[in-house]
Write a structure and sequence with these properties.
There is one protein chain. 30% of the residues are buried. The protein is mainly α and 360 residues long. Helices cover 68% and strands 0% of the residues. It is built from 15 helices and no strands. It is rod-shaped.
Length: 360
């Protein structure tokens, strides 16, 4: 049997293709929706509808970004050992480090690689100075001693650049496009990596300059895959939505009572909305965020170790980030407090020592 052809059939096929494409688009949209923001939006809409609050403009949360690299650069000190001096140091183990540092590749090395150069210099220079003095090269020994003192003074800044100023730590705090099911684990490889680096930094600052390059680089790579940015985005997102809801609830209370009595029809709807969509869907996520925030302390420990050497732009960003995160972690409890007057008014909570079930 022959299939019908012609303009009409072509139009039907085109409509079918467009319909399938539209349905696939809807399906993909549903699959790629960001669950945390969806839950917050859904709760907000339901609560506002129950309380008779006029819809407000859509939110566009803003997250202060990690400072751009140009604001974090620290000028490198000019090497005090020139080419002629370098030749005179050929019998020292330090000679190889200086030669590599002054090579064309050494001059464009990554911050972490430059940090390794400096640590090797600090570790090897004292023995080289002793050798120079024994050889009667007092002037060169004095030059090397001055370079050693200068590098010791600059070491915290060099370590900051190598550990916190590179692409790895920047990526650690990068906000993901979508949060998905974050946090989906109780711990991350970056936690142990940050702890290991903090241990190394403490030792280096105490003048023990030993290091295992492969281990430090592996730790930096684990930090690159960490979740600081996901937590940051989650906590700020939570704060932005709950704070807006709290402000709208307070304005609604000033406009008049929500419930005339506990038997008001709105009371049962409000009870369902709060229990099912806040206590049941948002608070479990909030608790996981709270737990994860405590486990990010290694990152702050590392920052505090090197705070005296951090660039000004990073210090401002760090303070702003910590302030926003602290505020965000308090947001669920503040929301409970904002809801209590409405819950009492609707007979859903006693007048004294009332609380919303399941609050944190």
């Amino acid at each position: 049997m022959m299939r019908p052809t012609g303009p009409w059939t072509c139009r039907v096929h085109a409509v079918i293709r467009l319909t399938i494409s539209f349905l696939l688009g809807l399906s993909l949209s549903a699959c790629t929706a960001d669950p945390p923001e969806d839950r917050l939006q859904d709760y907000e809409e339901r609560l506002f509808r129950t309380l008779g609050i006029t819809e407000v403009d859509s939110l566009v949360p803003r997250y202060p970004r990690f400072p751009a690299p140009r604001y974090l650069r620290i000028d490198s000190a000019r090497e005090a050992i020139d080419i002629l001096d370098l030749w005179s140091l050929r019998e020292c183990a330090l000679h190889g480090v200086l030669a590599e540092r002054n090579s064309s590749l050494g001059r464009v090395a990554r911050p972490s690689t430059r940090m390794f150069y400096e640590l090797d210099f600090l570790r090897l220079a004292p023995a080289c100075i002793d050798l120079l003095l024994q050889s009667g090269k007092e002037e060169l020994a004095a030059t090397l001693g001055d370079a050693l003192a200068d590098k010791e003074a600059r070491l915290p800044a060099v370590i900051w650049q190598g550990v916190l100023g590179g692409a790895e730590y920047r990526h650690y705090w990068k906000s993901p496009q979508r949060l998905g099911d974050y946090p989906h684990a109780t711990s991350y490889a970056s936690d142990q990596a940050l702890q290991a680096l903090a241990s190394d930094v403490r030792r280096w600052l105490a003048h023990d300059y030993r290091f295992e390059r492969a281990e430090v680089e592996a730790a930096l790579q684990k930090i690159h895959g960490g979740d600081g940015g996901a937590l940051y985005k989650s906590v700020v997102l939570q704060a932005v939505y709950l704070e807006r809801i709290d402000a709208a609830v307070q304005q609604r209370l000033q406009a008049g009572p929500v419930c005339r009595s506990g038997k008001d029809s709105r009371a049962s709807i409000l009870d369902t909305v709060v229990r099912k969509f806040f206590v049941g869907r948002i608070q479990p996520w909030s608790v996981r965020l709270q737990t994860r925030a405590y486990q990010l302390e290694p990152a702050r420990d590392l920052e505090e170790l090197l705070a005296g050497a951090e660039p000004e732009a990073f210090g401002r960003w760090r303070e702003q980030r910590d302030r926003l995160m602290a505020k965000g972690l308090r947001a669920p409890r503040a929301h409970v407090e904002a809801l209590l007057p409405v819950m009492r008014q609707c007979g859903l909570a006693p007048q004294a020592q009332a609380k919303v079930p399941g609050h944190i």
